[in-house]
């Protein structure tokens, strides 16, 4: 057999070109779609049917069910969609991935599309050098499409000629008549190939080429297609491994749905493939069992009908599937709801930079929640008499401040990553705004820690304020707490609809009250109303509270800047 290592590298390179073309085309489509993709994905919350349609549409557009399911896992992780809403989208993604088969069937073998690849690259090249981000995305779309079909053409030419080298499949001949064993063998090959190349579409293209070259028969190729349905779930489960519980559950939904589908299909596999053979030969067509040229069409029919039937069966069992994955991935009750950590950006970048900004916004909202919670701990410390409880609260503030430093760095690094990709003008404004907010939220955490240290120093020195002084501090704390609440409300709103009237009114009240307390403090020191040491701590508390409020208004102003 004359099949060298160089020929093998050519085969790998052809597959690489196919994958790279698909990647460029997929990313370009997502960039062109931009906010439309976001609008499509936000529409999935209505009902199961719309969710299925959304999953189909997005997967058909980006040509990767793995990308769609990873995206959905990220959305669930970010709290953009619920687990229940994600199930329909995952089901629809399985139907959407069948479009790849039809593209290859209709164009890849019947039309020599590679002849048009170079002209397509020539058409896309001027767009690549355009100053317009949208035009550059269209250029990438043309070039990605051209590379995809060039890769497919090279793939066809790079596989060894089975007729001249029959020994290639000699090891498989003993399994071809083994019934269910043959089906399971090729199912396993399909699963393994998909796991290795991390793309069911690429594995499908390879399967179609193998059929077209006469390597394998229709039933064996159909079994590989079933294996690809299982293999494609691995990507989402890997992505979810570092996500939260909801993300892990969404990935398990994909796994369970596809495995259950494969199980029922295996029970009727030969009858189902026989039915497709009958339908193709009914009106004088060619049987896929007689002609390799007919197999791609038969495979496309098999893949599409299997996934549609699978969805029609299991769409009614969505609540059951949800309960099963909740049982498989239980919520750990020992995990405190006060745990401060990165929650939304742990799964990495989403498929587009605009969607990644949404994930960053969720993380900042979560960050603000915990910096606000720190202020609550400080207020509790002021009135806590028990040493054990007081020390626990102080340790918690100290711990949160340390984590806050790391969270601010992680959010900033994440936003810096996003900035390296193409963003709309509004997206760039949002990114700059979020960078400012992350810095100010970290400063709020620092101020909370400074307040906690002042309260701790007051306790160590056994200093007690008079009721009148305590009341004044409580009034200042109430104003700051209200300012923090308004800040969080503003963070929850759309930037273009934020009004800072209330936030600025509170800021003025806090500044005026700080000036009043400062004037009174100097008089009290002069009149020996309290000791100098007590006065220093009293001054530190109301001055640090005012400084904290400055960072709070900075966050709200950063939000408002986006709408300017």
Order of helices and strands: HHHHHHHHHHHHHHHHHHHHHHH
Determine the N-to-C terminus distance.
70 Å
Number of beta strands = 0
The major pleated sheet works out as: none
Number of helices: 23
Description:
The chain is mainly α and 564 residues long. It has two domains: 5-328, no CATH class; 353-562, Methane Monooxygenase Hydroxylase, Chain G, domain 1 (Up-down Bundle), CATH 1.20.58.220. The protein contains 23 helices and no strands. α6 runs parallel beside α11. It is elongated and about 110 Å long.
Brief overview:
The protein is 77% helix and 0% strand. The chain is built from 23 helices and no strands.
Topology at a glance:
Elements: H1 5-33, H2 35-42, H3 48-62, H4 65-77, H5 83-96, H6 98-108, H7 117-128, H8 133-158, H9 170-173, H10 180-197, H11 200-212, H12 218-231, H13 233-240, H14 245-267, H15 269-281, H16 295-314, H17 318-328, H18 353-382, H19 387-419, H20 425-460, H21 467-492, H22 501-526, H23 532-562
Helix pairs in contact: 1-8, 3-5, 4-5, 4-13, 4-14, 5-14, 5-16, 6-11, 6-16, 7-8, 10-11, 10-12, 11-12, 12-14, 12-16, 13-14, 14-17, 18-19, 18-20, 18-21, 19-20, 20-23, 21-22, 21-23, 22-23
List the keywords.
mainly alpha; 564 residues; 2 domains; Methane Monooxygenase Hydroxylase, Chain G, domain 1
């Amino acid at each position: 057999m004359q099949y060298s290592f160089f020929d093998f590298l050519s085969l790998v390179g052809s597959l690489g070109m196919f994958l790279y073309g698909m990647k460029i085309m997929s990313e370009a489509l997502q960039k062109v779609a931009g906010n439309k993709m976001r609008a499509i994905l936000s529409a999935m919350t209505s009902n199961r049917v719309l969710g299925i349609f959304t999953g189909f549409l997005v997967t058909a557009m980006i040509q990767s069910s793995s990308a769609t399911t990873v995206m959905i896992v990220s959305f669930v992780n970010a709290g953009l969609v619920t687990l229940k809403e994600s199930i329909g989208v995952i089901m629809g993604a399985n139907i959407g991935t069948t479009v790849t088969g039809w593209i290859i069937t209709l164009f890849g073998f019947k039309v020599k599309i590679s002849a048009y690849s170079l002209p397509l690259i020539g058409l896309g090249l001027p767009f690549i050098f355009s100053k317009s981000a949208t035009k550059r995305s269209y250029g990438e779309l043309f070039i990605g499409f051209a590379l995809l079909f060039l890769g497919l053409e090279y793939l066809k030419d790079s596989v060894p000629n089975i007729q001249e080298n029959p020994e290639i499949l000699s090891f498989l001949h003993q399994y071809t008549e083994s019934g269910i064993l043959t089906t399971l063998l090729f199912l396993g090959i399909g699963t393994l190939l998909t796991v290795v190349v991390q793309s069911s579409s690429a594995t499908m293209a390879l399967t179609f080429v193998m059929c077209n070259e006469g390597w394998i028969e229709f039933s064996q190729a159909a079994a590989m297609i079933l294996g690809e349905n299982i293999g494609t779930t691995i990507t989402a489960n890997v992505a979810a491994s570092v996500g939260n519980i909801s993300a892990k559950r969404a990935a398990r939904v994909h796994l369970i749905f596809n495995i259950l589908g494969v199980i029922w299909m295996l029970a009727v596999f030969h009858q189902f493939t026989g039915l497709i053979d009958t339908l193709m030969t009914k009106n004088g067509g060619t049987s896929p069992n007689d002609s390799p040229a007919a197999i791609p069409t038969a495979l496309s029919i098999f893949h599409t009908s299997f996934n549609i039937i699978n969805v029609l069966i299991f769409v009614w069992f969505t609540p059951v599937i949800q309960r099963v994955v909740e049982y498989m991935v239980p919520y750990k009750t020992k995990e405190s709801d006060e745990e401060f950590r990165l929650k939304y950006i742990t799964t990495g970048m989403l498929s587009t930079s605009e969607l990644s900004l949404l994930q960053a916004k969720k993380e900042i909202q979560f960050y603000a929640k915990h910096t606000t919670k720190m202020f609550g701990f400080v207020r509790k410390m002021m009135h806590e008499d028990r040493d054990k409880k007081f020390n626990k609260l102080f340790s918690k503030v100290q711990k949160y401040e340390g984590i806050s430093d790391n969270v601010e760095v992680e959010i900033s690094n994440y936003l810096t990553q996003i900035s390296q990709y193409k963003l709309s003008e509004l997206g760039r404004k949002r990114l700059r705004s979020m960078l400012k907010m992350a810095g100010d939220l970290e400063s709020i955490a620092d101020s909370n820690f400074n307040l906690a240290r002042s309260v701790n120093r007051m306790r160590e020195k056994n200093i007690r304020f008079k009721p009148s002084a305590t009341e004044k501090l409580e009034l200042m704390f109430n104003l700051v707490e209200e300012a923090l609440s308004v800040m969080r409300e503003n963070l929850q709103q759309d930037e273009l609809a934020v009004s800072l009237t209330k936030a600025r009114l509170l800021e003025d009240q806090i500044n005026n009250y700080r000036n009043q307390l400062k004037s009174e403090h100097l008089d009290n020191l002069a009149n020996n109303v309290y000791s100098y040491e007590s006065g220093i701590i009293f001054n530190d508390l109301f001055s640090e509270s005012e400084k904290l409020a400055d960072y709070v208004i900075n966050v709200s102003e950063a939000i408002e800047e986006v709408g300017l």
